Structures are given as structure tokens and as C-alpha cells.
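Q: Sequence in, structure out?
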Amino acid sequence: MAKKKSNKTIYQLYKVNWTDAAVWNGWRDLQRLDDLNGAEVTTIGFLVRQTKDIVCLSPTLTRDGSTSSTWQIPRKWISKMTKIKGYTVEYIS
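A: Exactly. Output:
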């Protein structure tokens, strides 16, 4: 989560490994459905919000507090979350 220092908020960079829901299009033998396990995904972004159920990452932040997009990943889908040391963004409010 972001740390507050007076009028600054510091966002840390994280690597998150998680399993996403997956859609497979096209004809498929029903016997082959046992092989489906979702999609193993790795997302790298700044931790901008988190709750007990959701982790919210942003790949792009500006120093004035804007973002181009966010990923809201359910915690139950996350297998590993690693802080990437040395990479932060400071937002000045």
C-alpha cells in the first residue's frame, strides 16, 4: 500500500503472479475440458490500493496522481506477490 510522508504518497512497484479466468473459443471435445486450469499471469505495477479482497495495481503513474489504467485482482487469485525494491513513484498532494 502507499506510504504517506507529509504531503507525499509513495507507491511501491510489485510483481504479482496470479491465475486469471480464461475463455477458450472454438469447438472442443468435452473430454478435453479437464485440462483447463485458467491462465497463469504475471502483472507488474505500482500498488495503488488494496482491500482484504482486492489488490489494485497501475502500470503507469504521473507525479501529480494520475494513472492510465488499473488492474483490480482478487486476492484469492494471487499465488505470489513480490515487492520490487528500488522502484517507487512519489505523488505530491
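The chain has a mean pLDDT of 86.
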